[in-house]
Design a protein that fits this description.
Layout lengths: L1 H16 L6 H5 L6 H9 L2 H12 L4 H8 L3 H18 L1 H20 L1
Length: about 110
């Protein structure tokens, strides 16, 4: 039931925006986590958070992460996927704000 609610929220978010929202990889690409991202990441259940951090932030492969977490690679893939969905839902507003501020910065740079 819990995952159905997360999946429903994610699907409605995608349908509303007409495209896939920013992924955690894009949000973390600068490796400078803002307070909102840190808080959202801390609220993700530990197994999912660990998988997301190892794969998306530390850039370990799924196989390397499986060794660290002492679980099958398929389990890592599942945890990363679910963790990313939780973060996408939790960080929707943050991502929208960042996109707007980045867009205005890019526009200023183009006109300079």
């Amino acid at each position: 039931m819990y995952w159905e609610r997360i999946d429903d929220k994610y699907e409605s978010m995608v349908a509303e925006e007409g495209k896939t929202p920013n992924t955690p990889e894009e949000l973390f690409s600068s490796k400078s986590l803002g307070d909102q991202i840190t808080k959202a990441l801390q609220e993700v259940p530990e197994d999912y958070r660990t998988a997301v951090v190892l794969v998306d932030i530390e850039e370990l492969t799924y196989e390397e992460t499986a060794k660290v977490m002492e679980c099958p690679t398929g389990t890592v893939r599942s945890r990363v996927s679910r963790g990313r969905r939780l973060l996408q839902v939790a960080l929707r507003d943050y991502a929208a704000e960042r996109a707007l501020s980045m867009g205005s910065t890019q526009k200023r740079a183009q006109h300079a």
